[in-house]
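Below is how a single chain appears once it has passed through the pipeline. First comes the sequence as given, then the structure the pipeline wrote out for it. We keep one example in the README because the format questions we get most often are answered faster by looking than by reading.
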Amino acid sequence: MRALIAAAIGLAVAFALVLTITAMGSPAGETSPKPLLTTVPSHP
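Resulting structure:
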């Protein structure tokens, strides 16, 4: 029974943490217009 209560409390804390992070929203900022290069461009 203690394990079940501990699991329920853990789930409630995790759910509250997710709701808090979601309520805060995404951080303000801008994305770069330049694409990210994942490989080194080859020069002929």
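The helical segments are 2-24.

See the next section for the split statistics.
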